């Protein structure tokens, strides 16, 4: 068993859901795609089962992992016939084009769908001026397809003017719908934080990031995860010795070394101590891009990494620190490898 793990605090997850519920009476769709943003789709969905109204995932493969009988919206409107065969009664498919409808209509069962409208992102979605025709085609030609919702995605929430225009565009599409559609949703986490009070025509909010407390310094939810590590071995190295690959570190005094069993393979290991090599610079560019921030922290202070992180070990200076100290490892589950063990906590209990 590794001495490196990601602790997930289910009490904080519940706290976040309660906070969101305090701020809105709209239905809550919990986005658990990408393995619940790296935190474990099975445990997270099971825990959220009685706390949210809907789930959303990216693909049907992911929906199969959700431990809940609640409705699950599949966000990616691209399906093969193999996918379609796996659709259960509580799955709702996103549709945005006729090819998809044709695949659905060739199957011998009914499908529940939400229509996805492209209001500017240019990823998936039907264009605004095609929405009414698309809906009337479904109604008249695709008898096994039942339209239950319509939605769009806010992709540039940092820009208020742009987003307000986008919200108005979507509102305008809804005002001109020729058919009544029950479920309407557009707010993701940043949309919810900034625009929930000004959007009153939607029925549901579709939230991922804030539920888990990513970027928690920017909003009211708590970060629910923390990577942690404990040395698998500690020892002393004499003054004037090199440590690790490439002799990047030389001791100035007798030094207590701790070996942590986390390393490059865990996407860990890019801190200030590595500044002087090309690898660091290249990695830094990549990780800056991913907003990845990594450090090993004990009692509020960054520990010094000795040399460079290895494939699966990192050596740290443990002068004055007891052998069984537990360190906080500052990294994001989105960047972290999903094979890193997770420990779920509820109260003081591991679950
Ligand atoms: C991922 C995703 C969300 C959730 O976004 P957050 O910013 O994590 O809240 C909502 N809608 C769609 C279409 C998504 O792909």
TrEMBL record:
Residues 224-345 form the Alanine racemase C-terminal domain. GO terms for biological process: D-alanine biosynthetic process. Keywords: Isomerase, Pyridoxal phosphate. Its cofactor is pyridoxal 5'-phosphate. It comes from the Bacteria. GO terms for cellular component: cytosol. GO terms for molecular function: alanine racemase activity; pyridoxal phosphate binding. Substrate binds at residues 123, 311. The modification N6-(pyridoxal phosphate)lysine is found at residue 33. SUPFAM superfamilies: Alanine racemase C-terminal domain-like (SSF50621), PLP-binding barrel (SSF51419). This is Alanine racemase.
């Amino acid at each position: 068993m590794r001495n490196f793990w990601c602790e997930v605090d289910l009490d904080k997850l519940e706290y976040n859901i309660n906070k969101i519920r305090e701020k809105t009476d709209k239905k809550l769709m919990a986005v658990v795609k990408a393995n619940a943003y790296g935190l474990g789709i099975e445990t997270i969905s099971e825990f959220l089962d009685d706390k949210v109204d809907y789930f959303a995932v990216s693909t049907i493969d992911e929906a199969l992992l959700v431990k809940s009988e609640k409705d699950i919206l599949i966000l990616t409107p691209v399906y093969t016939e193999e996918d379609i065969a796996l659709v259960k009664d509580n799955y709702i498919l996103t549709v945005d084009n006729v090819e998809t409808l044709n695949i659905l209509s060739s199957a011998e069962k009914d499908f529940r769908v939400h229509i996805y409208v492209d209001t500017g992102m240019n990823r998936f979605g039907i264009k605004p001026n095609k929405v009414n025709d698309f809906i009337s085609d479904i109604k008249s030609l695709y008898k096994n397809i039942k339209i239950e919702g319509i939605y769009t995605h806010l992709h540039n929430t940092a820009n208020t003017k742009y987003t307000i225009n986008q919200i108005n565009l979507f509102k305008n599409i809804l005002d001109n719908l020729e058919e009544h559609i029950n479920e309407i949703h557009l707010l993701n986490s940043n949309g919810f934080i900034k625009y929930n009070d000004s959007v009153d025509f939607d029925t549901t909010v579709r939230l991922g990031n804030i539920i888990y407390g990513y970027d928690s310094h920017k909003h009211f939810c708590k970060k629910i995860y923390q990577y942690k590590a404990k040395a698998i071995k500690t020892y002393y190295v004499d003054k004037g010795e090199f440590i690790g690959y490439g002799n990047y570190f030389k001791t100035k005094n007798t030094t207590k070394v701790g070996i942590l069993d986390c390393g490059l393979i865990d996407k860990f290991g890019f801190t200030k101590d590595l500044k002087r090599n090309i690898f660091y610079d290249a990695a830094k560019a990549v990780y800056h891009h991913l907003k990845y921030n990594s450090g090993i922290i004990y009692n509020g202070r960054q520990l010094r990494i000795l040399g460079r992180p290895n494939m699966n070990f990192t050596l740290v200076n443990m002068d004055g620190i007891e052998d069984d100290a537990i360190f906080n490892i500052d990294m994001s589950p989105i960047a972290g490898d999903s094979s890193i063990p997770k420990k779920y906590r509820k109260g003081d209990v591991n679950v």
